[in-house]
């Protein structure tokens, strides 16, 4: 693998029912996901063949389905589930996942809260 090769997906905005408070689990709220997918991009770069890389459109749709259909209390659990899903792709060596809650239930002027996890294929 070429050191540093990765696919970056930024600002995937979705709605889901994630949080500890009952109202967070009853009413969908906005989330934003960033992915840093580590993979050997050399074969795709030299062949110009989509079949030799990770299709980020398909991957984003899979992440969207997870965020919109599942429900987690903690952002940590949601980020872990997203990381596990991305690591299922055979070309993915590692992934960094940042999950932002864009409307956190805090009585302060707070733009967002986020967690970041980094996982490697075992």
What is the CATH superfamily label?
A: GTP cyclohydrolase I, C-terminal domain/NADPH-dependent 7-cyano-7-deazaguanine reductase, N-terminal domain
Order of helical and strand elements? EHEHHHEE
Largest sheet: 4 strands, antiparallel
Helix percent band: 25-40%
Written overview of the protein:
It is built from four helices and four strands, in the order βαβαααββ. The protein has one domain: GTP cyclohydrolase I, C-terminal domain/NADPH-dependent 7-cyano-7-deazaguanine reductase, N-terminal domain (GTP Cyclohydrolase I, domain 2, 2-Layer Sandwich). It is an alpha+beta fold. The chain has helices at residues 22-26, 42-47, 56-69, 75-87, and strands at residues 6-16, 29-38, 94-101, 113-120. The longest helix is centred in the middle third of the chain and has 14 residues, at 56-69.
What is this structure, in a nutshell?
With 122 residues, the chain is α+β, with helices and mostly antiparallel strands.
Write the layout of secondary structure elements.
Layout (H helix, E strand, L loop, with lengths): L5 E11 L5 H5 L2 E10 L3 H6 L8 H14 L5 H13 L6 E8 L11 E8 L2
Antiparallel strand pairs: 1-2, 2-3, 3-4
Helix pairs in contact: 3-4
Q: Top keywords for this entry?
A:
single chain; about 120 residues; alpha+beta; GTP Cyclohydrolase I, domain 2; 4-stranded antiparallel beta sheet; 4 strands; about 30% helix; elongated
């Amino acid at each position: 693998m070429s050191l540093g090769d990765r696919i970056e997906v930024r600002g995937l905005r979705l709605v889901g029912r994630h949080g500890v408070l009952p109202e967070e689990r009853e009413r969908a709220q906005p989330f934003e996901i960033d992915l840093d997918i580590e993979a050997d991009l050399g074969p795709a770069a030299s062949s110009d063949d989509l079949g030799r890389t990770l299709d980020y459109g398909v991957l984003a749709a899979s992440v969207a389905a997870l965020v919109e259909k599942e429900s987690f209390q903690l952002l940590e659990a949601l980020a872990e589930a997203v990381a596990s899903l991305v690591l299922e792709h055979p070309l993915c060596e590692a992934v960094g996942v940042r999950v932002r809650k864009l409307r956190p239930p805090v009585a302060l002027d707070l733009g967002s809260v986020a967690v970041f996890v980094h996982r490697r294929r075992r």
